[in-house]
Design a protein that fits this description.
By secondary structure, the protein is mainly beta. The chain is built from one helix and eight strands; from the N terminus they run H-E-E-E-E-E-E-E-E.
Length: about 120
Amino acid sequence: MKNFLLAFAVLFSVNVIAQNVADVKFDKSKHNFGKIKKGVPVSVVFTFTNASAKPLIVETATAECGCTTPEYSKPPVPKAKTGTVKATFNAANVGQFTKRVTVKFANITQPIILTIEGEVVESK
């Protein structure tokens, strides 16, 4: 019985500490650059708001390929304040593209996926 109570207490405390994805409100999760010139990098800034009572911390922001570079707010984002994730695409190759940036927040198990897309065309 003692082990059961201990296990219940541990599970309950983990559940109380964890936040959920609803605590993060992005202004948008997708951006279309349209047609862009080859060799001219483009960037977009995704802004998020902390909708929880606890500070939000971005643990990582990773791109699915080396052609996209994410940057993100490093300090904890207090309640009702905003932070950013910037995605820069290098536009090295001609053609349509869709790239994803996976953003992982501390104490939130579900990552958030941000998407950029467009078409790289030859510069004239």
